[in-house]
């Protein structure tokens, strides 16, 4: 930033010396209409003094012009070269923008499974991000509302825009912000364009080479009598294989029994149940097709038809050594002692357990060998048609029709075998990642010491459809000192969501409490299906920087990749009441909803160059939205027919269903205001205020109520009536948001900006447990509710510059940097004691996904035929989920940074080759858990270490060509 301040005037002088190279708008630009896609104002300047504008420099210049000339606060990443977004996925590209962060887990509420490419885009800490494709709706069929950005091929993108405080003409739905993915159109270029990319990528952990390729053809034909025609075809294909290793601690439990207190003076100690270790091999294939036709029969009429189809397939295979004993029954082996720190937190010890063992006499600690195989395929298709008609010199009509369809199907299947490892010693030195050993180590290599324990299948089948119509009218004022133009528009949508999710269907095969006819009551691997298991070696686990049992017996590929075959094999000897596949979808598994929206907006654009002493422009508008929702579902009472309760209760509660149908609507008025002062051609100040809304996810709206009853140990009386449900009465989250930004554009690729923002969030959604009465019986039901209000505030700083003032080849150096600070207040969530399922209220947690600090630091070099980039991205600790699906505890992702890079060489004006890299620093993702709530109302506010994950360093050889 100091260099920018020191050399900015020199850069401006250089810029002024060649008027053809001026990137800032002329004074007359303030009176122009907004820039249309493909207009001259958006085309990058082609020359700098002594520097040819290509590659990274041209993309940065294009993105800077979009930001500087926009009518609202926006940040962009563009790809002037075909297939040349700076990262190999849309998600990874987005994290380079100030205020945008991503997760590195497949789902925030399941931080046991790592995602190398990232997921879960957040803007200024808000997860309610709206995704658009070319300014229109787009979504993935995943029970949510937004787009899974990892589903979309980055190679198809011309650019990505992030709107953080949008004007009224932007479609509603993104309270955090709106991400617009832009694809190319034929009329973007004057004639024929051919481009292709190719590459081979490999991770040093997965050690599997995977290809990628894309091809684009675009052309424009001019006819004598029928105007101009344009056609574009773009196809992209890529595969990726990654491996991630994870080490995890089981939750720490407050204990005061004599066995764990032995040798201490503590009243209470905190003992983990054990440790887990897992390797996950992930593969994905992404195929994208984009096509566009344009026709301009005359200067007043333009017709466009666009199609995009994204086909995303992934599979992952996990080998997990998972602690499977009872935490409260773990104690020092052989009457020994555990070692604790000064706060009574476990440090090391040899574990034993007095959990019930059935016919077994071992005191070893139980572990599962968890072999899990998951597949998913998501297909999203968008077909859009638009019209632009110049009615006269002052009026322009826009019309748009869109059809979106997204389907997703997934299967998740796990087969478990189990063993009781003897002599397990757990060491957690100084809070670092644990080491775990078993003595004798040879015990784990004998299949007779394992037994088939359980299996679990899970199915999802989702389908989303939307039809949208939009009509806009623009009127340009002539000879007005203040009024520039006004836009009015109406839009109507009809969306249906049919989501089927049959839960996780776990069932026993053999166990101490589900014995079969064998000497031990268990189905050991040496006797039963001996060919369906094999010894798996954790090769180079955690790159050799961890100590875990090196080998375990796991179910075979054939067994886990065909769950029908697995049932035939396991059912032949397993428990008669054990696991059976659940291929059907029950009433509670089906979420069928429809939603219709109607909206109208008006925006007035104004500006004056002289009245206030400096040029000023802006817009003021309002968007009115009505949302109509309908949903049909069921409630289900508990089934007490097999219990020993009073016959009158059995007659009242026998698992019967009752209908739950809902229809309703809500209205929202969303005003917006944007104002810009242009102190000079390069220095401007923006003010923005708006109201935004974000509708609840379809899973939160599901009209289903599952009711249950907890019985006494002898099954003769009910001790607790409870339930869980969705809430179709939810209203959207709303926010009044304010931004101010000071922006200095001191060179065509040089900028310095500072932004302050404030969001007043209302009706945020969180799960709460409240008393509801059915049939005269009070039930404690947990469901999502609209809560009161919260506050988000913060700021962003950004800087970008190539050092063109340096001599010779040194002028090729450049830097990008941005920093974001976000603070929140007002969110209070309930927490649950994971050991008694007792809800403890009043545990204050921040909003999920919100890092207080994040930054990007990018070093660039582009000179002659060389282009290089090193990009460091970092974010501070944030709350992943208020209730992890495994531990039921609040779970956090700790501070994390990653270094990526690329180097490209231009062979000639058409072809360049290079290397792109990810995770050069071999970064470790660390997960924390806590606070821990207990049934007596006390809360342990410490954050304990939950997990450590590492994944590949990735390398890709790439070639790009365009003609």
UniProtKB/TrEMBL annotation:
Cellular localisation: Cell outer membrane
InterPro entries in the cross-refs: Beta-barrel_TonB, Beta-barrel_TonB_sf, Plug_dom, Plug_dom_sf, TonB_rcpt_bac
Principal location: membrane
Keywords for the protein's UniProt record, in alphabetical order: Cell outer membrane, Membrane, Receptor, TonB box
Domain TonB-dependent receptor-like beta-barrel stretches: 414-920
Low complexity: bias regions: 19-31
Disordered: annotated span: 14-44
Domain TonB-dependent receptor plug: 67-178
Family: Belongs to the TonB-dependent receptor family.
Protein name, UniProt field: TonB-dependent receptor
């Amino acid at each position: 930033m100091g260099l920018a301040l020191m050399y900015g005037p020199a850069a401006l002088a250089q810029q002024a010396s060649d008027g053809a190279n001026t990137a800032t708008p002329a004074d007359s630009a303030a009176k122009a209409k907004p820039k249309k896609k493909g207009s001259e104002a958006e085309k990058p300047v082609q020359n700098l003094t002594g520097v040819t504008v290509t590659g990274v420099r041209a993309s940065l210049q294009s993105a800077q012009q979009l930001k500087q000339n926009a009518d609202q606060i926006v940040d962009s990443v563009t790809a002037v070269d075909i297939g040349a977004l700076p990262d190999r996925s849309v998600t990874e590209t987005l994290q380079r923008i100030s205020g945008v962060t991503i997760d590195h887990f497949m789902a925030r509420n399941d931080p046991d499974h790592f995602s190398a490419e990232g997921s879960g885009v957040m803007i200024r800490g808000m997860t309610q991000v709206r995704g658009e494709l070319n300014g229109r709706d787009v979504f993935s069929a995943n029970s949510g509302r937004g787009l899974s950005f990892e589903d979309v091929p980055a190679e198809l993108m011309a650019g990505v825009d992030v709107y953080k405080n949008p004007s009224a003409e932007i479609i509603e739905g993104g309270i955090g912000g709106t991400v617009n993915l832009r694809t190319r159109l034929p009329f973007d270029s004057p004639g024929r364009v051919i481009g292709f990319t190719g590459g081979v990528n490999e991770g040093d952990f997965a050690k599997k080479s995977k290809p990628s390729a894309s091809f684009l053809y675009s052309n424009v034909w001019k006819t004598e009598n029928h105007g101009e025609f344009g056609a574009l075809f773009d196809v992209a294909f890529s595969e990726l294989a990654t491996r991630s290793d994870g080490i995890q601690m089981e939750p720490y439990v407050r204990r005061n029994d004599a066995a764990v207190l032995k040798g201490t003076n503590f009243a209470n100690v905190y003992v983990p149940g054990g440790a887990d270790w897992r390797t996950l091999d992930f593969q994905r294939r992404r195929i994208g097709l984009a096509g566009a036709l344009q026709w301009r029969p005359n200067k007043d009429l333009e017709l466009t038809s666009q199609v995009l189809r994204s086909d995303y397939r992934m599979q992952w295979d996990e080998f997990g050594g998972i602690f499977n004993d009872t935490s409260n029954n773990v104690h020092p082996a052989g009457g020994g002692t555990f070692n604790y720190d000064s706060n009574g937190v476990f440090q090391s010890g040899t574990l034993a357990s007095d959990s019930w063992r059935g016919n077994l006499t071992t005191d070893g600690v139980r572990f599962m060998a968890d072999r899990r195989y998951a597949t998913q395929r998501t297909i999203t298709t968008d077909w859009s048609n638009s019209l632009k008609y110049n009615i006269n010199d002052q009026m322009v009509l826009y019309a748009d029709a869109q059809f979106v369809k997204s389907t997703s199907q997934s299967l998740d299947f796990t087969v478990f075998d189990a063993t009781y490892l003897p002599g397990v010693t757990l060491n957690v030195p100084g809070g670092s990642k644990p080491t775990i050993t078993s003595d004798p180590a040879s015990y784990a290599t004998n299949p007779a010491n394992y037994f088939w324990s359980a299996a679990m299948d899970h199915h999802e089948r989702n389908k989303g459809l939307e039809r949208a119509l939009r009509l806009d009218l623009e009127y340009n004022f002539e000879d007005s000192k203040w009024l520039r133009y006004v836009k009015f528009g109406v839009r109507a949508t009809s969306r249906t969501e049919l989501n089927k999710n049959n839960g996780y269907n776990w069932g026993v095969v053999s166990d101490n409490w589900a014995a079969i006819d064998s000497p031990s009551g268990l189905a050991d691997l040496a006797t039963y299906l001996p060919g369906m298991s094999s010894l798996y070696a954790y090769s180079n686990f955690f790159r050799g920087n961890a100590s875990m049992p090196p080998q375990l017996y796991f179910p075979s590929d054939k067994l886990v990749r065909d769950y029908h075959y697995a049932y035939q094999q396991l059912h032949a000897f397993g428990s008669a009441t054990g696991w059976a596949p659940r291929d059907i979808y029950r009433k509670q598994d089906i979420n069928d909803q429809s939603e219709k929206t109607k909206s109208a907006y008006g925006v007035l654009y104004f500006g004056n160059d002289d009245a206030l002493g400096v040029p000023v422009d802006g817009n003021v508008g309002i968007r009115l939205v009505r949302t109509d929702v309908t949903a049909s579902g069921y409630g289900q009472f508990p089934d007490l027919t097999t219990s020993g309760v009073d016959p009158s209760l059995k007659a009242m509660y026998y698992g019967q269903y009752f209908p739950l149908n809902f229809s309703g609507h809500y209205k929202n008025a969303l005003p917006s205001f944007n104002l810009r002062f242009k102190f000079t051609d390069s220095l401007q100040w923006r003010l923005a205020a708006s109201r935004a809304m974000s509708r609840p996810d379809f899973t939160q709206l599901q009209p289903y109520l599952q009711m249950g009853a907890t019985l006494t140990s002898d099954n003769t009386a009910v001790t607790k009536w409870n339930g869980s449900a969705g809430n179709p009465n939810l209203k959207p989250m709303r926010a009044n948001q304010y931004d101010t930004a000071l922006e200095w554009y001191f060179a065509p690729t040089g900028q310095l900006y500072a932004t302050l923002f404030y969001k007043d969030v209302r009706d945020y959604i969180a799960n709460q447990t409240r008393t509801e009465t059915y049939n005269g019986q009070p039930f404690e039901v947990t469901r999502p509710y609209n809560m009161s209000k919260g506050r988000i505030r913060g700021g962003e700083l950004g800087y970008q510059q190539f050092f063109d003032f340096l001599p010779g080849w040194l002028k090729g150096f450049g830097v990008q940097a941005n920093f974001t600070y976000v603070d929140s207040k007002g969110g209070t969530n309930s927490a649950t004691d994971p050991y008694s399922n007792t809800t403890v209220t009043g545990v204050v947690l921040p909003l999920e996904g919100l890092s207080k600090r994040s930054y990007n630091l990018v070093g660039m070099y582009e000179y002659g035929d060389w282009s290089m980039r090193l990009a460091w991205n970092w974010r501070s600790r944030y709350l992943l989920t208020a209730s992890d699906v495994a531990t039921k505890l609040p779970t956090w992702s700790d501070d994390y940074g990653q270094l990526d890079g690329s180097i490209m060489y231009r062979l000639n004006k058409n072809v360049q080759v290079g290397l792109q890299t990810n995770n050069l620093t071999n970064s470790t993702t660390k997960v924390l858990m806590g606070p821990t709530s207990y049934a007596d109302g006390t809360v342990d506010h410490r954050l304990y270490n939950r997990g450590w994950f590492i994944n590949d360093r990735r390398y890709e050889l790439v070639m790009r060509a365009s003609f």
